[in-house]
Amino acid sequence: MPRLLSALNEWLERRARMREERQFHLERASADLRALGLTAREAKRMARIRFGSRRNSQTGLRELGGDLRGLANLFRAHRVAASLWFQPIVLLAAGALIFAVSPSPREIAEGLLGRTFGAEVREAVALSVYGAGPASPGITLTELASLQSMATVTRVESFGPHQVLAQPVKGITLAAITSEAVARTGNRGFYAAWILRQPGIDTTAAKVVWLLAALYGAFFLYSRLHRRVTLPWLLYAGSMAFLHSAVSIVAWALATQLWSRAPWSGKSWQTPTTAGLSFSLLAVICLLVAAVQCRYWWLDLRRRCPVCLDRLLLSQTQGDASRIVLGAAITESVCAQGHGILIESRWSRDFRRGHSLFSGPTCV
User: Fold this and answer.
1) Span 249-273, pLDDT tens digits
2) Can you give the residue ranges of every domain in the chain?
3) Of 64, 113, 251, 263, which has the highest C-beta tally within 10 A?
């Protein structure tokens, strides 16, 4: 965060310097023109014409480094991307942007958490029989006809041989519905259960993908626990993994939300094909993005100092990459805070701490 603020502050100072210098020259030119007998309004207009259009100001900003390219150069000069806070800020900003552009942010939040907000909405009631299994005969036609004549529920419809769905009368209780169902059918095994409103967006597929990715990432982290990694490094790894997964799931929720609202055109026999192909393409894109996120997460962890979590720099390679034993390539990267040097080879990665309160090698 301090590096980001420093870069922005320097960029804003350059733009302020450009504005002040232009304003100074405009005032001087206007004063000279007023001395020649022009009115104040005409002098200001002629001074602006003399200094040219807005394109000249943009050219000056570009030469001074006050445009977007100059801001990007300042980000690199201040090593903003190497900061500990850069990745969390980017992920949180991406999540906030997703919620901002979503037609219904509440649906995305419900899909992320897997539950609805507010009071439980009892949309329907299910009538089933205790102990009903694949071998049981299920609800007979006579029992279904008796259930359809109930006074506590309406719109009774059969959904399979073992369950009936109905619309409850306002203010009715499950006990009253169960009692009437038993009385009308004569089957004491009948019971009623509420069917609550489910989230409008299903993110189960994305959660399963990231659960598998989390297990895979946990294996890599566990394989390095015996090498005395630091606790801040592990906390950073876990928090970044959580943020990546949360933003990815939210992005999947937004994609499915927009897909479900897309006006699929064409003939009726073309619509299912178009929708299926587009959804398959969407799923493939989300999987590729998740793979890129996992790859970046792991590479970012390997390039950070285990003490201060800053990006290592000044990488230097000695040796030949084609050799395996004698003269093999060895790369050294230095921590900018002076915590040590990371030595990488084909066979090992050792972080050798420098002059600090700690001692001993730490492998990452």
Assistant:
1) 999 888 888 888 776 544 444 556 7
2) 2-80, 89-110+202-302, 121-197, 313-353
3) 251
